[in-house]
Amino acid sequence: FIVCLICSVSDLILIFAGIFLFHFFSQYSNSIIELIFNIALIVLLIHFIYTKIRFHNKTIDFNKEFTNNSALNISFKTLAFTYLNPHVYSDTVLFLGNFSKNVLPNQKILFGIGASIAAFIFFYLIEYLSKYLSKYAQSKKMWKIINVFIIIFMSFLCFYVAGEIFQVKFNLLNLF
User: What is the spatial distance between Cα 34 and Cα 98, in angstroms, rounded to a whole number?
Assistant: First the structure.
């Protein structure tokens, strides 16, 4: 429960940080900042896709011993894993911030609330279904299927962001 709560609240904070960050830069600066954010996002996406492809055939060891940890120890590990993980920033701040820039200003809060509710549902659903799903998660074939799905999904996101980059670059060229 505590891991889901920490992850969900962290996503809520980072989702709204991304929404307001993109909103701020879209109102008070030119498109160069947006271009930099989009390039950073596409670099992270390409790195993520490359890593998934590179480790696609790697063997996973499912027979690890787990120790019983205190709630405080689990909380610190969860906070460290959350905020030191670069993917949390690409997923929440960059992805959702980028997608929110096309939402009307008065609807950005609703967009953030909806994305945050989805994060809460996702984390708690995974947590409470984990016992049932664990028998499938130990299958090497299932992990290969999951990885292929992730690679395809992230590739579509990469093409979407690349389209955004070309649109911003075209808009910058029209300024000169």
Answer: 9
